[in-house]
């Protein structure tokens, strides 16, 4: 499966699936870049462009609340209700021999957040996105598969805490977030269908119009504020962190459009809770990518690199929570940066990583398609190694994390916030130095850009 599977086997499996709905064999099958979890493949069948969405391995689907058959049924229900969702043609079957997934008609538009953020009328697009989300939240449970789960808030936070334990329970900022979630758990409200991954990257747009809502694998019943908040996380605003709503506009406009379509009111306190929750959720999701790679079932390079994006969420989480600290702690200066020793003697691990990255740059023009994308990922990974080696930063502190989880240390503890700020800045500068919120945090905490 995945990277090692032959093109011939994939084409034969697709031909088998398409034949069940009277479609000709596929042509021009090629892998699309991106996708933190599922694979996407573009193909032509007759005179029509199609997309295959599937798991990189059958084991990758283990432990998920529902499979691709239910995901396809959810998308069909959304499409029938007027949501800008794709049209499903056929689901894969075991005899097709290419795993779990489905084939859908391709939609116009781009999923590229950077291209979407440059469109001429972001305010109009934001309103369309809000209206489509309201339509999703109006879908009737009776029209959806019976295995779509319903979120219990307390169990969901417990699940995050277990993921934290499984990942070593040694990241203090995540521990701070988990404790905050337990202390601020909201009362349940009437559940609605949540898309679960409603953000730029999973939305198609063309000419400032919404043309597709993709990737429904995380759908569940729960608080509508979770869906509303998720797309507003800093990480999903990409280069436009100055626009709080999906990088496209203001929260006021987004909420107004949603409320007008849904007839429901948006509560700021609940919105903040789910913003913190999904920031912790994605921090742990990034960490878990390393475990997927270690298992041997999915050895894609992107997995280990995404695991280092945990530091993005730690910085964002601290920015969300620091307003609860006393004013004196918010004003406290951070510890100084410890200067790195001058390298002497044999080449360090970081210098070797730099040398390999420089060599890879010389062969970049010989690559194309997915191989070129993988080369870029590899160079990014080597840069992470070199910068971490030079900075000597360490994000793990199991004792402090445990103290934070148990409430023995809080944001009122003298010096804690300053220490966490320094750790967050240093780790993110080593892992993802171009992350847009890094500049904002550095300016806020140090007055430097």
From TrEMBL:
Instruction: State the InterPro entries in the record.
Output: ACAD10_11_N, AGP_Transferase, Aminoglycoside_PTrfase, DUF6285, Kinase-like_dom_sf
Q: What positions does the domain Aminoglycoside phosphotransferase occupy?
A: 30-249
Domain of life, source organism: Bacteria
Q: Which residues are in coiled coils? A: none
Domain (DUF6285) ranges = 367-435
Spell out the PANTHER family in the cross-references: AMINOGLYCOSIDE PHOSPHOTRANSFERASE-RELATED-RELATED, BLR2944 PROTEIN
**Protein's recorded name:** Uncharacterized protein
